Give the backbone structure.
Amino acid sequence: MSLSDARELAVLSVLHAHPAHGYAISKAFDSGPLALLGLSRHAIYRIIDRFQRRGWVTGEVDSSNAFPDREILTLTPDGQRAFQDMLTEVSDGIPHSVSPILAVTMVLDAGQTLPRDTLQTLLQSRIDTLTRMQDDAHAETLSMRVSQDILRAEIDVLQAALAAVP
């Protein structure tokens, strides 16, 4: 899954959780794990525009409060299918070694499950990569140390996810 796809999945995840207006969606990306995707408000609105062109969202103007009119966005059945398709892609349609951990955690946070073997494959690929990095001649460079720390964190997340799977 590309970073662009992960960003779209994140916006879909917000709308899957509940209908929202663009500003509320952009606020969800101001802090917490979604902030790691680096989406500006402008980028979020471009994603929403793409979703509208694809027929994934519909909007209804809400003028019932003191704020300016806002368009409340809701996923359409096509948008729900796109969300489910992206979840499936994360779980089994892409090379496991490149599944962004944030996409994996968004799937789990959305109440979806990933097959145990998928989680095990993701975990093993990260363990293998970490081992190679630790054995690399440049293992002590700043960028390699940061990469190793990220992999350790991803390994911890995947181990916790595996522990939660029956």
Q: What stands out?
A: The first strand starts at residue 20 and ends at 21.
